[in-house]
């Protein structure tokens, strides 16, 4: 008696159904982990209070401060340099709401504060087979651990706070297989940008993605998180990767993992797509031809290999994007001057990312006129980086070393790119004005960002590799 082969997504989905989907009603899903930050939670808590409801599972709800917080420390009187009164109010509101509802907040003073998608995995809150939600689109990051993880809106944050459940229609499934072996100097970020370029902006809409194949298996957990993080930039709700021995070893010993770790791990390792499982769509990519990538436009799919230069626009959208970016089709990527380099975010703000950047910067200087900001994704990343002396590598090179937060990825906290300036950023969004009004963003890997900081223009990092 053989049962129908199932995908990883279907297996995790089915385990969490509280009520089945029908023609006129979405499924009701149980949520294992609800992560909360200061920007998308205030109205949800107000709604809860207006209805006299409690947080259903405070033990499954964890909060942090990341988006609106300054990355510069407090002054002599202990005052934090909030960018706006609203930013300060958001922080204070979350402090109040979490205290009132018995929700754990990794706030100021916590050694675990950081960007929400960095700290979940780091503390082992994120575990294989979980459903993970957060009022934040890059929740897809947690899919790297074999979770169904996706962003929700503020009203849904309220639903989950009140019920620990969420009404959801089952998405279609797409398998993305990345075959072959990556060339030296090519990272998870380059793979992600290559996948998005292939899918196109919105090409993943309505799908849950599963990434698989030898290239994905060979990536470290940080690289896998980077790939899953960018799923949303192709329009997909979530992206996931089957847990393997690397996942198990990465999570071992982390604060919130089950006490009987080996028993849990044995269950996690069973979570994989069965042979013969059917997907609504399949894409196969040759990983061995992927080169260091950089975007040239104003959506994350408008990118390409750095060595290929700026493409000639083939439609109105591309003409508009190149104009905004101040780039010209046919030019080498080295023509445009870089003003700012940002290393950080939930895409590339982990220790492995900082190491990759530091390996290139060690003993070198950031080019004259370039401002470089390095922002660890979490307190733990910051502490580990300092212990390894990475902060010193950055500051010796002339970069600024800051406290953890979303920082220049979203520019709502005082860290931003000035109008008209061009930034090479390790984050995930390059929309017009994303890093500040009039700012222009080139998305790339930490190695590319670091090499570009030294060169003063976008370069292929392979020319800058040095053995540490
Ligand atoms: C502020 C938040 C709602 C937003 C998101 O959902 O992604 C932010 O994290 C972003 O990256 O744009
Ligand atoms: S680092 Fe950027 S992408 Fe990630 S959660 Fe913060 S603002 Fe969003």
From TrEMBL:
Its EC number is 4.2.1.33. Residues 10-456 form the Aconitase/3-isopropylmalate dehydratase large subunit alpha/beta/alpha domain. InterPro entries: 3-IsopropMal_deHydase_lsu, Acnase/IPM_dHydase_lsu_aba_1/3, Acoase/IPM_deHydtase_lsu_aba, Aconitase_4Fe-4S_BS, Aconitase_4Fe-4S_dom, IPM_dehydratase_rel_enz, IPMI_cat. Signal peptide: none annotated. It comes from the Bacteria. Keywords: 4Fe-4S, Amino-acid biosynthesis, Branched-chain amino acid biosynthesis, Iron, Iron-sulfur, Leucine biosynthesis, Lyase, Metal-binding. SUPFAM superfamilies: Aconitase iron-sulfur domain. GO terms for molecular function: 3-isopropylmalate dehydratase activity. Binds 1 [4Fe-4S] cluster per subunit. Its cofactor is [4Fe-4S] cluster. [4Fe-4S] cluster binds at residues 346, 406, 409. Gene3D superfamilies: Aconitase, domain 3 (3.30.499.10). It holds the Pfam family Aconitase. It catalyses: (2R,3S)-3-isopropylmalate = (2S)-2-isopropylmalate. Pathway: Amino-acid biosynthesis; L-leucine biosynthesis; L-leucine from 3-methyl-2-oxobutanoate: step 2/4. Heterodimer of LeuC and LeuD. HAMAP family: LeuC_type1. Catalyzes the isomerization between 2-isopropylmalate and 3-isopropylmalate, via the formation of 2-isopropylmaleate. Belongs to the aconitase/IPM isomerase family. LeuC type 1 subfamily. This is 3-isopropylmalate dehydratase large subunit. It comes from Asticcacaulis aquaticus.
């Amino acid at each position: 008696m053989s049962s129908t082969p199932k995908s990883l997504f279907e297996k995790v989905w089915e385990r969490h159904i509280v009520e089945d989907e029908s023609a006129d009603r979405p499924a009701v899903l149980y949520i294992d982990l609800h992560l909360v930050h200061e920007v998308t939670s205030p109205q949800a808590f107000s709604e809860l209070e207006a209805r006299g409801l409690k947080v259903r599972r405070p033990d499954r709800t964890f909060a942090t401060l990341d988006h609106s917080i300054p990355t510069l420390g407090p002054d002599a009187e202990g005052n934090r340099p909030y960018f706006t009164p609203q930013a300060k109010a958001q922080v204070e509101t979350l402090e109040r709401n979490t205290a009132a509802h018995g929700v754990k907040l990794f706030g100021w003073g916590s050694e675990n504060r950081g960007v929400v998608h960095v700290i979940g995995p780091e503390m082992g809150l994120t575990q294989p087979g979980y459903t993970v939600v957060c009022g934040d689109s890059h929740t897809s990051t947690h899919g790297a651990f074999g979770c169904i993880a996706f962003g929700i809106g503020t009203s849904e944050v309220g639903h989950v706070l009140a019920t620990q459940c969420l009404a959801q229609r089952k998405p279609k499934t797409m398998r993305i297989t990345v075959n072959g072996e990556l060339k030296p100097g090519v990272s998870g970020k380059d793979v992600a940008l290559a996948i998005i370029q292939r899918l196109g902006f919105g090409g993943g809409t309505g799908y849950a993605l599963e990434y698989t194949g030898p290239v994905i298996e060979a990536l470290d957990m940080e690289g896998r998180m980077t790939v899953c993080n960018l799923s949303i930039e192709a329009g997909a709700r979530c992206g996931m990767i089957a847990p393997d021995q690397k996942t198990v070893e990465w999570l071992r010993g982390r604060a919130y993992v089950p006490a009987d770790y080996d028993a849990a791990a044995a269950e996690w390792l069973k979570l994989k797509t069965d042979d013969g499982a059917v997907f609504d769509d399949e894409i196969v990519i040759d990983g061995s031809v992927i080169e260091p990538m950089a975007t040239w436009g104003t959506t994350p799919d408008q990118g390409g290999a750095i060595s290929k230069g700026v493409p000639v626009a083939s439609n109105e959208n591309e003409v508009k994007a190149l104009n905004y970016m101040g780039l010209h089709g046919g030019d080498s990527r080295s023509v445009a001057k870089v003003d700012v380099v940002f290393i950080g975010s939930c895409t590339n703000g982990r220790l492995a990312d900082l190491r990759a950047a530091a390996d290139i910067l060690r003993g070198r200087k950031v080019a004259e006129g370039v401002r470089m900001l390095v922002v660890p994704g979490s307190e733990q990343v910051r502490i580990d980086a300092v212990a390894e002396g990475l902060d010193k590598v950055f500051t010796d090179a002339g970069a600024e070393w800051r406290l953890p937060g979303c920082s220049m990825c979203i520019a709502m906290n005082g860290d931003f790119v000035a109008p008209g300036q061009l930034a090479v950023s390790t984050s995930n969004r390059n929309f017009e004005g994303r890093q500040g009004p009039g700012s222009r963003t080139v998305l790339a890997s930490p190695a590319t960002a670091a090499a570009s900081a030294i060169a003063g223009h976008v370069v292929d990092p392979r020319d800058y590799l040095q053995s540490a």
